[in-house]
Amino acid sequence: MDAREIIARRAARELRDGFYVNLGIGIPTAVANYVPEGMEVILQSENGMLGVGPYPLAGSEDADLVNAGKETVTELPGTAYFSSADSFAMIRGGHVNLSILGALQVDREGNLANWMVPGKMLKGMGGAMDLVASARRVIVAMEHATKSGAPKILEACTLPLTGSGVVDTIITELAVMRVTPQGLVLEELGPEATVEQVQRLTGCSLIVTEPVRRMF
Question: In 3D, which of 201, 69, 70 has the Cα closest to residue 147?
Fold first, then answer.
């Protein structure tokens, strides 16, 4: 498995039967491919779709059937379509059990920055601010460090925040970390990761109780 598959597969284990779930753009969207067999999870896309299925097979894409990230998706039996206004009423009304989002930065207090880098062009925040403010639980699913090896998990975010103290759990290809009032607790290690490696690539101290279990 590559890093993105490890993250998506592990994040899918946080799903529960009957949950209404919103998946963010990027790695989180791939979670739809790994919903445990026999589990009924209703995936919501903020552009107005309830009942999102996994990615379509090559050659079977419908260009008119897309998620909020403009990726082609499939529909499941019972899928419903509605306006963005209705979609955000669902989100703001607290009806989303779980939101899985990507991030640029997360810090030890659960603060999240995932919508802009100052000086770079962007289309807007999208639904991220509403989701982190309203979803009952927020998981960040992202690669542990930048392409240059710089930490994305920090003592304090340096980019503009999407939400303050909103993240409950962080899942990367190297680790699963839980946000607590005392700091980040290292709960699981990736398939080949070590505690030393995770700490070296993390920009804040982790709370570690040995032995740390493996993701898979």
Answer: 201
DSSP β-bridge partners for residue 176: 171, 188
Amino acid at residue number 58 = A
Q: How far apart are CA 81 and CA 141, in angstroms?
A: 26
Q: Determine contact, residues 186/108, Cβ cutoff 8 Å.
A: no
Closest CA to 23 of 75, 63, 69, 59: 69
- What is the DSSP secondary-structure string of 66-95? B-TTS-B--EEEEEEE--HHHHHHHHHTT-
Catalytic residue among 5, 37, 40, 46: 46
Cα–Cα distance list, 74 to 79, 113, 120, 150 (Å): 10, 29, 32, 36
132: left (phi over 0), alpha (psi -120 to 50) or beta: alpha
Convert the pLDDT of each residue in 82-106 to its tens digit.
999 999 999 999 999 999 999 999 9
What distance, in Å, lies between the first and last C-alpha atoms of the chain? 12
Per-residue pLDDT reduced to its tens digit, 157-190: 999 999 999 999 999 999 999 999 999 999 999 9
SS3 state at 183 = strand
DSSP 33: G
Does residue 46 have an active-site annotation? yes
DSSP single-letter state for residue 149: S
